[in-house]
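Support request, please re-run this one:
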Amino acid sequence: MIEPGMVETIGWTAWDFILRNWALFSIVITVAVVTITPILILGRYVRIILRVMGDTPPPLSIRIRDFEPIAGDEIDFRALDGTSLQGMFLYGRRRGPRRGTVIFAHEFASDMYSCARYCRPLLDAGYDVFSFDFRGQGQSPGQDDYCPRQWVSDREVADMMGAIAFVEHWLETQGYPVELGLFGISRGAAAALLAAEHDEPSAVKCILCDGAFSTDSILEHLMKRWAYIFAKVRFLYENHPPVFWRFLRWLVMRFTKRCFNCHFPSVRKALKRMKPIPIFFIHGEKDSYIPVQQSRLLYDQAAQPKYIWIVPGAKHNQAAIAEPAPYADRTVAFFDRYLAGVVAETADFGDHPVASTA
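Re-run finished. Output below.
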């Protein structure tokens, strides 16, 4: 049994030990604070981002129906991982030699029929278009272990690669040159860029990207944007060094694979590894969801030849509506030059006209 006096004696002995070893205790406390505080901050950010990624519907998740759909020949094909998908062929209006084939990849929460919103000028110019539904979108069935989100994952890349393989085989069986172009919108553009990196030997001759982004870089942007809402200490979130955000981005990417049962590859990194291929970036100047800086970032990473057109006044996925005539002219001119091999006196499909080399 401990007597009351003994408790007091133990307390004084402990306090005396602390006083005699104050330097050691100061170091231990400092190390604990320096170690635990960043872990708590990072943990809070990671929880917030994962919740936003998993639960927050984006503004672009409303299905767009400001166009007249075009019916085509419906096709069943498979993604690279064997998932069954639905697609369709639309055939160009022939007024001369065949121009080529373009694969269209729709935006999140849309479907293959949205190609009419963007590709009608290509059809009028004589291009064939293959449009398809990503898994869990449109007529393509979903999977029990995967929920499609606005962030491009390895599942959408497998869908895109399956579409490329299918069209390559179709071109071969038709006796056409095995050459094609890719045309992607938002998440579809990201999937097109990621799939093109793995297309060997390459039949993809050029890529047109409208509203493209890289998941890792846009998440870093959103983390900084949301920090002021959730952070308790303003001084901290306003003074995080760049290395903090890069590490947080890396950490979030590690957690997403476990939480969402998929991998979110980096378009930014893929462009660094990709062999040179003509890429045309289009982005709305007033895009409040995917800022125009995201396309500029990807443009900077891409090899030549590359082009970028920032559409004045256009919001996300609205460039074709804001500037319909220039959009039609520039998209056709891009594929004319790099897919069909037809070059006008000036090929005006970037912010600056490109002089003819013919």
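Residues 352-358 have pLDDT under 50 and may be disordered. The first helix runs from residue 4 to 20.
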